[in-house]
Amino acid sequence: MDITVPDTGITRSFSMANPPSVKSRLEFIIKVYPNGAFSSLLKDTLRIGGPLQFKGPYGTCLRHENRPGPMILVGGGSGMAPLLSILTDLVVSGEQRRVRFFYGARTRRDLFMLNKIQELGSHLDDFSYIPALSGPGVEADWRGETGFIHQVLERHLQREPLAGEADAYSCGPPPMIDAVLPVLQMNGVEPENSHFDKFTAAVH
Fold it and tell me: Residue ranges per domain, the chain?
C-alpha cells in the first residue's frame, strides 16, 4: 500500500502484515529510522485517530493456494510483514505444507514477532523457523545460525533439499533479494515458483 501523510507531501510504500481474511483493518511493520522523513512523523507527530491516505493494494507477492510442495520463506528487516501475512494465510486456510522460514537480522534484539511465529508454526505439521545473525560481535551465547541469510539458506538447502514443487517467497532489501534468488534457483526452485517483494529505500 502507498501511505500518504496529508499536508506533508510524504508518501511511502509498505507491505501489509495482515492476511486477506482480516478485512476490517490493515497491519504494517514499519521501522523507525533516525531522521526518517516518514517514520519520524510516526514516532513524534502522528497520533492515534489522525488522518492518513491509503492507495492500493499493489504487488504480486501473495500465497499460491493448493500447492503440494514445501514453502520456503526468506526475509530480513521489515520483510517480516508480507511473510507473516503469507504464513498466517496458510494457517487460516487449513492447508498443511512443509514450511521453512528463514529470517536474517544483525543482532538478537533485531529478531521480533517470535511468539507470533511460534504460535502460527504450532498449527503446521512440519514447520521450522531459522533465524540467523550477521552483525559483528554476535552474542557469545547465541546458538543459532550465523552469516547472511542467503548463506544460511544455501547451507540448509544442501542439508535438506526442498526443491521440486517448492514455492519460495523472499521479502526484504534489494541486496538480500539479489543474493537469495540465485541460491533458490541453483537448488532447484523453478523461477516461476520464486516470488519476491524487493523493498527500496526512500530517496528523501
Answer: 71-198
